[in-house]
Write a structure and sequence with these properties.
Layout: H1 4-19, H2 32-45, E1 63-69, H3 76-81, E2 85-86, E3 89-96, E4 107-111, H4 115-124, E5 131-135, E6 146-151, E7 154-160, H5 161-166, H6 173-177, E8 181-183
Parallel strand pairs: 1-3, 1-4, 4-5, 5-6, 7-8
Antiparallel strand pairs: 2-3, 6-7
Helix pairs in contact: 1-2
Amino acid sequence: MTGPGARRCALAVAVWLLALPAGMAKAADPNPLELAVKAAFIYKFQFYVSWPPRAYTAPDSPFKLCIVGDDPFGNLIDQAVSGQRVGGRTIAVARLSSVSVDDHCQMLYLGTEDPRLARQELSAVDGQPVLTITDAISDDSAKGMINFVIADDRVRFEIDDAAAARDGLPISSKLLSVALSVRPLP
């Protein structure tokens, strides 16, 4: 399914996922439901952000989702994007030890809770149209444009709309409306 119907369905799934307790399955495995929810969010974020043409090296370049550092998802991300397209582009998942502008990522998930490492990786793509996603970072200077948090035992996220706009990535008001908090545009 593609088009407006798919987007409405994706938003409905995202809202439903917000209602799921993050710790429902903690006893059997280390946070498998939390990881599945985060993987689904990462995949769905792309539908609510617009990338400028300069974000791609060529008209037929794939949409590149990069995971830097620890990858807690295993094959969850690969399963979520398998056979999917973003704006007519295939989706490629790249797992990297570190990132640079030469990696040509459109979306970047940082698998670290270490603020120093997060700042280092974020600085490598600063000013580029790369949607940066961090996980459980409490230091504001080390958060990505989207930062996952656990609130009321649920996976939620904060959005830095100002940082996204500064790097040429407008975020849909639909996504902003379901965020736990939003750093607004100046």
